[in-house]
Amino acid sequence: MIATTIPPGASPSSYAYRSVTGRDLISIQDFSPDELACALELAASMKARPADFRGVLSGKQIVLFFEKPSLRTRLTFEAGINSLGGSSFFVDQTQSRLGARESLSDVAHNLERWIDGVVLRTFAHETVTAMAMHASIPVINALSEQEHPCQALADMLTLQEHFGDLRGVRLAYVGDGNNVAHSLMLAAASLGASISIGTPAGYEPDPTITETARELAAASGAQVRVSNDPIEAVSGADAVYTDVWASMGQEEETAERQRLFAPYQVNQKLFSHAAKHAVFMHCLPAHRGDEVAASVIDSPRSVVFDQAENRLHIQKSILVLLLEGGAHRFPPRSANA
Ligand code: CP
Ligand code: NVA
Questions:
Q1: CA 18 to ligand 2 centroid distance, Å
Q2: Both 106 and 136 in a single domain?
Q3: What is the pTM (predicted TM-score) of this model?
Q4: C-beta of 247 in contact with ligand 2 (< 6 A)
C-alpha cells in the first residue's frame, strides 16, 4: 500500500492514530514524527494494561515470512499477535528466497485474498518494498539489509522509559553503519534525540539515510553526527549502542571485520567516555568479546533485555495501528490515566 500524509491543519495526535491504518511499515520514514510518537504512546499503554487490549486483533490473520534466523522478532510478533486474539502463521523462508518459486507480485496477490497482514524478514530491502507495492494489505519490515524499524521503535520506547523524554537524549552508536544504525538514526532524529555514529572508514551509514536523518533532526531540534572516531561518538552520551560487526549474510567477512572493528568494541574503557549515568544498548544477538565486552553488556547499566521486552509491546502497537487504528478505541495514555 502507498503511504499517505497528514493533511495540513489536522490535529496530529488524534489524526496520527488513524492515519497509519492500512499502511505499511517498511522504513522509519514511513511514519511521521507524530505517528512514531503515537506508536510509542500506544505501546506504553499496552505494556501497562495488556488485559485492555485482548481480542483487539480477533479474527485477524498475519503471516510471517523469514529468510533469515530470528529469536526475538519471530517470537515477539507471534506472542504479540496471539495475545491480541489474532492468528499467526510462520513460513520458514531460509531455504529459498521469497520470489524464487513465483513472482513477488503473484505471492502478494495471493496473500491479500487470504490474510490481513504480512511480516517479512529478508535479505534484499527491495523484497519488502515490492511486497508492499503489490499487496493491498499492510506489510511490516521485520529486518532487511537496509532497515530494522521495529527494533528502533522498541529502542526509542526503552530510552523514553529510562530518560522520560526523548528530546535532548544523546545516543551514541559505534560499530557497523548497518540496518540497525539506519533505523536508529531516523527514529532518533524524528523524535528529537541526538545521535552520534562512530564507524570504521568505509562502513559509515548510507549517505542518503544520513541526509534524511539530518533533515528530520533539523525539524525536531536534534543533531546527527557521523565520524570514524569511537571516542568522539561516545563522549558525553546518555546511551551507548552497538550491534554485531558482521550481520546475517556477511558471515564470510567476519575475520576481516573483527580486525577492522576492534577499536570500536564497547568495553569499559570506551564506555567510560560516556556520561556517568549512561546505559548500554544492543539489539541482540550479541557477541561478547567482539563488539561488546561481557563486563559492559552483563553490567547493571545494560538495558538490553528491556529492549528485547519492548519488541513485544511496540510490535503489538504497530500491528494494532496498521490493522485496526481507531483513536476512539485507543485514547492517548495521558487522557486515559
Ligand atoms: N534483535 C533482533 O531482531 O533479534 P532476532 O534476530 O533474534 O529477531
Ligand atoms: N545487523 C544485524 C541485526 C540483527 C538483529 C543483522 O542484520 O544481522
A1: 31
A2: yes
A3: 0.93
A4: yes
Q: Cα dist. 167→31, 163, 192, 219, 230 in Å?
A: 18, 9, 4, 12, 23
On whether both 101 and 53 belong to a single domain, the answer is: yes
Average pLDDT in the 126-145 region? 97
Ligand 2 close to Cβ of residue 155 (< 6 A): no
For ligand 2, mutation pick of 70, 176, 248 (most atoms within 8 Å of CB): 248
Clarify whether residues 49 and 134 are in a common domain.
Answer: yes
**Does ligand 2 lie within 6 Å of residue 179's CB atom?**
yes
Same domain as 121, residue 225: no
Residue whose C-alpha cell is 494494532? 320
Q: Which of 184, 311, 315 best tests ligand 1's pocket when mutated (most atoms within 8 Å of CB)?
A: 311
**Residue 187 contacts by C-beta under 8 Å, 6 or more apart in sequence?**
28, 36, 149, 152, 153, 155, 156
CB 297 within 8 Å of CB 280:
yes
Whether 337 is in a domain gets the answer no
Looking at the CA of residue 72, tell me the nearest atom of ligand 2.
Answer: 5
Model pLDDT for residues 169-202, shown as the tens digit of each residue: 999 999 999 999 999 999 999 999 999 999 999 9
Domain that holds residue 237: 151-301
Lowest mean pLDDT among 34-38, 133-137, 234-238, 322-326: 322-326
| Catalytic-role residue among 182, 243, 265, 282 | 243
Same domain, 206 and 138: no
